[in-house]
Amino acid sequence: MKLTVSLAAILLLVVVDATPDECVKAGEDGSDYRGTVSVTSLGHVCQRWDSQSPNKHSRTAERYSDSGLQENYCRNPDGESKPWCLNSEGTNPRGGLCDIPTCPVAAECDTGYVKCADQEQCIRESYVCDGDPDCEDGSDEENCPAVDCSDAANYESSECYSAAPQGQTLCSLLVGLLTTLIIIGF
Predict the structure, then answer these.
(1) What is the pTM assigned to this prediction?
(2) Distance of CA 120 to the CA centre of its chain
(3) CA–CA dist 28, 42 (Å, integer)
(4) Max CA-CA distance within the chain?
(5) If DSSP states are collapsed to H, E and C, what string results for 60-124?
(6) Coil, strand, or helix at residue 10?
């Protein structure tokens, strides 16, 4: 069995796999979130988990060793609806839920299609590095090899085509020039 991988597919393979360090997976409670958000949705700065002031609590790293109770970062050690923290600014409110971004859901692409860097959109493999951005984030036109427009094999490339005046190719320009020379009898 022969495996063929196109240059376009290789160029577009940018792994954007959001981790629990950055976001909460859609539909989950964020118990695996390990990011650095440290403020509640109401704007209160979080109390350090290793501090008992101003709010005494039982949520310690010793008791919840797998919960990532570090610094004053929002966490969900006890099955709340989403990550939360205690209020370092006082006891009213005692704490609150935190606004953690939801992880993007990766698109599944059919055969002959590739994912854009945002992992949310699929485009035809042949659209990668074709000179026209097809991904909303423009990732299909990033890191593309330069096209040598002086090479006859590339005359019809959209990169060379768009560089010519009024969208003309070098070949069509030469035909026009030769026609003009013949008409004027040169």
Answers:
(1) 0.50
(2) 9
(3) 21
(4) 98
(5) CCCCCCCCCCCCCCCECCCCCCCCEEEECCCCCCCEEECCCCECCCCCCCCCCEEECCCCCCEEE
(6) helix
Q: Tell me if 120 sits within 8 A of 104, measured CB to CB.
A: yes
Which residue has 């006890």 as its token pair? 78
Q: How far is CA 85 from CA 16, 37, 45, 72, 184, in A?
A: 28, 10, 9, 8, 84
Segment 38-94, tens digit of pLDDT = 999 999 999 999 999 999 999 999 999 999 999 999 999 999 999 999 999 999 999
Return the closest-CA partner of residue 158 out of 133, 123, 176, 124: 133
Q: Encoding tokens for residue 114?
A: 């590739």
10-31 in b/e form (b: 16+ CB < 10 A) is: ebbeeeeebebeebbeeeeebb
Cα separation values, 101 from 28, 68, 108, 121, Å: 12, 18, 22, 19
Give me the phi and psi of 84, to 5 degrees please: -150, 175
Condensed to tens digits (0 to 9), the pLDDT of residues 116-163 reads 888 778 899 999 998 899 999 999 999 888 877 777 666 666 556 555
Report the first-to-last Cα separation within the chain, whole angstroms. 58
Amino acid 134 reads D
CA 173/CA 150 separation, integer angstroms: 13
